[in-house]
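Rotation project, supervised by the postdoc (A.L.). Task for the rotation student: set up a whole-complex structure prediction and record inputs and outputs verbatim in this book. Inputs entered:
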Amino acid sequence: MTSAPPSTEETAAGKPVAPGGWLGWVTSTDHKRIGLLTIGTSLVLFVLVGILALIMRAQLAQPEQDLVGVDTYNQLFTIHGSGMIYMVLTPFAIGMGVYLVPLQIGAPGIAMPRLTLLGYWLYVFGAIVMLAGFATPNGAHADGWFSYPPMADSVHSPSVGSDLWIVGVFLATTGSIVMGWAVLWTVLRKRTQGMTMLRLPVFSWSMVVTCLMVIGAFPALLAALVVLAVGRADPSLFVSNVWNIGYQHLFWFYGHPVVYVMFFPYLAAVAEVLAVFSGRRFFGYRGTVLSLLVFAALSMSVWGHHMFATGQAANDYYSLTSIVLLVPAGVEYFGMLGTILGGRLRFRPPMLFALAFIPQFLIGGLTGIMVGTPVIDYHVTDSYFIVAHLHYVLFAGSAFGLFAAIYFWFPKVSGVMLSERGGRLHFWLLVLGTNLTFLPMFALGYEGMPRRVWTYAAFDGFGLFNLLSSIGAAFLAAATVVFIVNVLWTLRQREHGRAEPAPDDPWGAHTLEWATTSPPPRHNFTPEHPIPPITSFAPLLDLRRRRQKEAADSGSRS
Amino acid sequence: MRQRHIFGQVFTLESIIAGVVFVVVLAVFGYALLRRRAGRPVDPSQRSERPRLESYYVGVLGAFAVFLVAWTAWQNHREHQSADRPPVRVDVTGFQWCWTFAYPQATERRSVSGTCRGDDLPTLVVPTGRPVQLKLTSKDVIHSLWVPDLRYKMDAFPHHTNTLTLTLDREGRWMGKCAEFCGHLHYSMHFWIKAVSPEEYDNWLHSGAGQAVAS
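Outputs recorded:
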């Protein structure tokens, strides 16, 4: 039985929102738009809080400089670290999942799209609230990204910026948790026919594991922030040592898994790129998936290694769980190296960034084993050695994965190709800048330069390495300018219809997002662009092989 | 200087291991880059995994992890063996933004502090050859006492006392720093640690006129 729909009257309130306008974007329930909003917002913040780091490097270039005041400097490193961790690398990673996971599993959309959009809004408001601290009379929060009490209480950090920091981080993290649930639920419930768990692409698996950590560990940060907020209302809370050390435990229960949240999606993007540009499927798929799960499980038992010097943690236990991480990490390297060893390598821009990830992240990983050893950590913790280590993990590692992902998926997302020459220039400037900036910091920390210092004395002998590091930072700035110009120029050319259009699958890739148009239509797959049979975690590679075989067979028969 | 000695051993061994791993990975990486590039007559391998090789590899990694955990834990315990002789005790208090060193074993109450501005750094005086037990606490926020040349640091918490034992085997003077961010003047919260002979130390401690040593 059919019935006619009730007639609608044209009223202003009932008018549909134009999908192309800004209002259409910020109210969209299309996972691709929400994903792009998240990624775009985090890239803007990447540039903003990156500039804060450039100011810091300028201040540290020479001993006893007074380029920015000490209180300003303390705000800079706090918002740089908080911004990069809470507002850039975490949301970008989850945003990639929001965009790519439904496509990779052959779903028409994301589970819980409105909630996903809410997550994005919480993230944006959080970022704005945190940065608004700079507009308050005493400036932004100034106690580092982990903000231990009692330093962060209202007696020792009285500025409103500190309150805004708590609210901002709380909102943004809540947004990340909400989006994490949506992505996880999508993988579990919306896979297309034939897409078994062991046919999920490596990237989608990494998002499963990432979202498990988001869900399991991020609430601990919310709890820590509540402790801080209560303690700011009543500073007598922190008269009891239990709350001071308890905050650290709560914080690092979040603070270590978040490192892997900021790592797995980028690692998996690198894995996809390595496999595609090696012209073969990813080597050691099952081992890698298992190692990701083991990694995530261990990630929630290592937090105390950030507290070796507190004298109040079970150092042997946390050292054990931390050092054991080398096993799953070794398995991941086995997969990556195996892939390129049996490949036929094409050095396109995404591949360059993915290849550089391998040795550069290794430096971060190997020094990670060192700082997981208490005897070494007592000396180097809270020094520039840690700053070097964490930047090798998050910049030389994750950020290279981030750029590999951008160069790889840009044609799919935008429908046009990025300039190859611009990509190469960006790559070489970034490699040079990264290593010049962060390698000298290992030596600085070893020689005794504490982190979070506004300046250092001339007789300390830190001048040369700091100068080298600051010169490196200038290369990083140049690389980023090249990247921004390349992207904006290409998008502008697209407006004029002059950009090189991207085919459905410009790279000869493996996963389902490359079976649909570039950019994908509203519901991802259409009858003209159907989902191919899911025969493995690389269905498009299988499809090409089958067609080659058929062509060869029919060729031999005729 | 047991801390420095043990740190040196562990750091050297782990650096060598890390260096070897890095070079091996780099060699494999370089081989793939040179020999497997698209310009060369190579075909991509059809082999998607080698479970047997991988399980041996995991076994080796696991055994190595067990060795590393056990050996470094043993070194950590060696570093923290309690002294058999009655130690010299010093009460160290961090505050925004300097340090106070108090000597409860002195005949008269003796405590040394400073402002940590310019050259006004307090000096922690200790005897050589005798274990020195530092009772570490803070008046306000968390600080961290770090002597880079001794390769050791420990946090100073308010409302909590941490204990660390140092033995200095030669006379000298080294700079110490605050390693935990503690606000405005964190960057200049330095001090000196000065090791003198036991006789000189006893004279200084009990004479009450030993300010010359401490400055």
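Student's summary: Chain B has two domains: 2-79, 88-214.
Supervisor addendum: The helical segments of chain B are 2-35, 51-79, 198-207, 211-214.
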